[in-house]
Structure formats: structure tokens, C-alpha cells
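From the shared-data thread, chain only:
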Amino acid sequence: MIIPWQDLAPETLDNLIESFVLREGTDYGEQERSLEQKVNDVKRQLKSGEVVLVWSELHETVNIMPRNAFHD
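Structure, as C-alpha cells:
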């Protein structure tokens, strides 16, 4: 189930995004990016609709996924 990110308190959204970014692993790009930069990138992707917050009833977890990878 998609969770509208706009319905979350800003602090809750930040915590979810930080948790997601921190578990995604190491950067392998030319430049290392700060946690703040990564969080801002994810926020931008949420606002543009590129990614969505998804609740898994089976696992009772929230994840961030590309919109085109989410299947109802």
C-alpha cells in the first residue's frame, strides 16, 4: 500500500528517509555524498513522484521504491 508522504509529520518523514538511506549501503560514485544530501535527493524524488513510500503488511515495514517498481 502506498503511503502519501504528505500525510506524515516532517520529523517522521525525515526519520524514514534517513533510515532508508543508511541501510542502502556505500556510495560508489566519483564523490561521496553527505547524509543530508542523500536525504534531500530522496525528498526531491518523493515530491516529483519518482519514488513512493510503501507499507508492507506482510513484513510490517515501510520502504521507499521507484514508482514503476511498485505493483498494487
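The chain has two helices and three strands.
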